[in-house]
Design brief:
This protein has 134 residues and is of the alpha+beta class. Helices cover 30% and strands 41% of the residues. A hairpin with a 2-residue loop joins strand 2 and strand 3.
Length: 134
């Protein structure tokens, strides 16, 4: 009985190890992400309706300027494309955080996002996450 229990515990430990390894952040190398949407995150001092209005506004404003924009990661290089403009820079990935120069991106499932604030200070207290999806 002790042997059976030991075998079952060992098998369970191996299964748990595979599950935990599979839950780590995705490696972005070799992937291209295309602009998808903006999500507004309030600081807790604003009501939900104002945050939803800000989110809608930034989706319209940024959506028009970022339509078709993409981020491609390959062999330590990040290529950012927006319309006819292309910029390339070195990047590193440490877990969920991607750093390329002063740009910080974060891995979230099959998406990456950057955090930004309203450029015209209309939405003080709100952080906007600009999502790009693979």
């Amino acid at each position: 009985m002790k042997k059976l229990l030991s075998v079952m515990v060992a098998a369970l430990a191996v299964c748990l190890l595979f599950v935990l390894v599979g839950c780590g952040p995705a490696d972005v190398n070799g992937k291209t992400y295309t602009y998808d949407h903006v999500k507004a995150i309030g600081d807790g001092s604003l009501d939900a309706e104002f945050i939803m209005q800000a989110e809608w506004s930034e989706n319209v404003r940024l959506g028009m300027s970022l339509e078709g924009a993409s981020l491609s990661f390959k062999d330590g290089k990040l290529t950012m494309k927006k319309g006819s403009q292309t910029e390339e820079m070195d990047y590193t990935q440490d877990g969920e955080t991607i750093t390329a120069g002063s740009l910080k991106l974060y891995v979230d499932g099959n998406s990456v996002y950057e955090e930004t604030y309203s450029l015209n200070n209309l939405f003080i207290g709100i952080t906007f996450r600009v999502y790009y999806t693979a």
